[in-house]
Design brief:
2 copies of one chain form a homodimer. Chain A has 316 residues and is α/β, with parallel strands linked by helices. Chain A has 11 helices and 11 strands. In chain A, strands 3, 4, 5, 6, 9, 10 and 11 form a 7-stranded mixed β-sheet that branches. In chain A, strands 1-2 form a two-stranded antiparallel ribbon. In chain A, strand 3, helix 5 and strand 4 form a beta-alpha-beta unit. Chain A is globular, with a radius of gyration of 21 Å. At the A-B interface, helix 4 of A face helix 4 of B. Chain A binds a DNA duplex (30 and 30 nucleotides) through helix 3.
DNA sequence: CGGAGCCCTAAGCGATCGCTTATCGGGGCG
DNA sequence: CGCCCCGATAAGCGATCGCTTAGGGCTCCG
């Protein structure tokens, strides 16, 4: 019984699949499957069983889950405690949905570290679906993106979501775009577009856009560039595309109900269970400096890989 | 950071020495030292430092200790939970001071298992000094011996401690033995005689018996046999030597203040933190069957090795 | 100043961990 | 019925774990 094995089990149980757990841990699927198998044989219990679609916990697995989760949490506490006792800079592991990571998180965290002294910040990309597990298992401290249930969600940034396309796109000249006809055009999105827990994912779902109409780009900026090129329509975050719209490179479509008024949240564990650095970031989010940093539309930031394995194994 | 390493650290911290921790775990000293070194380098903190006589915790070590202890405890909980969920027989790990293990624990536990159905009981020998750590770290469920502070001590068996010797020993004919002169004779004891936390150890300490006057035998029975042979005086548990005294093989010395009225205790974690099997044993201790089993003076039980490594590593 | 404890390091060994790529089985769905 | 997705398994590899015996260094004590 190793910590790695318990971690693998907890993530499989929480995310409901070996594949998802492997992705969240940034390792291959057999790595997780193997850890699970080792734990199974050690404890002499299947722990999780395949059950049509997802995985279900055995009686033993149900009892093990909270205990294993606690152990994993305490292991994180242990490293934190030592870190802190040594006066080492606090560690703040931030995960964000791809759109947030690309345009908002970077300047925000840069401003935060500049202002709040010695903090070691890491930023990674995750889907909204895996964020709760990552936060609960202390693989991350803050999850930036849509509100997550079961966690403490602090409103972070209000933004507006519109639909944009290039000036030569057929829809660019239509005076009024009906929502229904949007499903018949190519959609150019980033990774969060195929994450049904994000706003864009929900939007595409609501519009019933078929999968073969969705083209995933490595970044929102790339999707907008393709849209400007006339290859299709794209979701656009108002203040970020404003400059391109002004210069005529993009057109904001007059879709009924848009732009959508939306909010991004900073999701964390409840007070007491989160680290001090996390609290400091939460407080920072309420300051004008934070707002200013997030509003700054520096779309030119270097885009990280598509889904980088963010989480180095905590216990080597 | 492995569970083994955390376990080693906790025991070193609790017992105040690498040597003691190694003994409690039944492994060699470098094994513990090595685990500690690995944890140290992983966390980048010395954790414990040598400080004249014992070991002292660094600031980081002090923070780590309660966390590591919790982790170890939860790991034990995990195996318990699975065991229980599978309907496997409960596990009850009993440790006792050598005298108790030799004469009282065996028949007691035999009667307990016979009466209380499917329970898997293991019995080991430990010094009273290491019992608290063993119980707190869930390496054992019950510690039989003297009352241990900080734990729940259930009175288990009243007994009387006398001083005995062979019929041809010079002291055997003295009408009144002064306590002071006992320090000038050879003492024949078992392992618990050199454990200053047991009654016999305290007795020898109070009598100021010098170390070179103490001869340690692998069992109380062996010490009594040597005493009967005239090789010296020995501590005698009244009801256990009664038969030998009756037959003239041993003489109970008229030392002032003896026989001492003493009590053995069953030490456990407080309610709620102990296993169900532990609770069952506690209840059993109040029954006439338990009393009867313990009173039965079957000194002929095969004596275990001097200090057997009782505790197999919990996580392989 | 020599000895005794106690802790640490060194060296070595077998087993396991943790990860990879490649392949096999099995259940749901068209 | 066959396809496809997902999980389990196989094989292999390097690193680490966990343990041993042997020996070196430190501190305390006589």
């Amino acid at each position: 019984m190793t910590l790695t094995q318990l971690e693998a089990f907890v993530l499989v149980a929480r995310l409901g699949s070996v594949k998802a757990a492997a992705r969240a841990l940034g390792v291959s699927e057999p790595a997780v499957s193997g850890a699970l198998a080792a734990l199974r044989s050690h404890l002499g219990d299947p722990l999780v069983r395949r059950a049509g679609g997802g995985m279900e916990l055995t009686a033993g697995g149900q009892r093990l889950l909270p205990i294993a989760s606690q152990i994993v949490n305490l292991a994180a506490d242990a490293t934190d405690a030592i870190r802190h006792a040594q006066g080492a800079p606090d560690l703040l592991r931030v995960v964000a949905t791809s759109a947030v990571a690309e345009h908002v998180a970077r300047p925000l965290l840069t401003a935060f570290t500049a202002r709040h002294g010695p903090v070691e910040v890491t930023l990674g990309v995750a889907t909204a679906g895996e964020m709760p597990a990552l936060l609960l298992e202390r693989l991350a401290d803050v999850g930036l993106g849509p509100r997550l249930s079961g966690l403490e969600a602090l409103p972070m940034m209000r933004h507006r979501l519109a639909v944009v396309c290039g000036p030569r796109h057929p829809l660019a000249r239509v005076p009024r775009v009906r929502a229904g006809c949007l499903a018949r055009h190519d959609w150019l999105v980033d990774a969060s577009g195929v994450d049904p827990a994000t706003e864009v994912g929900l939007l595409l779902e609501r519009l019933a856009v078929p999968e073969d109409r969705i083209r995933v780009f490595p970044s929102l900026a790339a999707a907008w560039a393709a849209a400007a090129d006339g290859q299709g329509v794209a979701p656009g975050i108002a203040h970020l595309v404003a400059q391109d719209v002004e210069r005529g490179r993009l057109v904001m479509l007059p879709v009924e109900g848009t732009p959508l008024d939306l909010m991004w949240f900073a999701n964390t564990l409840p007070a007491g269970r989160r680290s001090m650095a996390t609290d400091r970031l939460r407080r920072f989010l309420d300051t004008p400096q934070a707002m200013q940093a997030m509003r700054r539309a520096d779309a030119g930031v270097p885009v990280s890989r598509f889904r980088p394995p963010v989480y180095v194994t905590l216990w080597s």
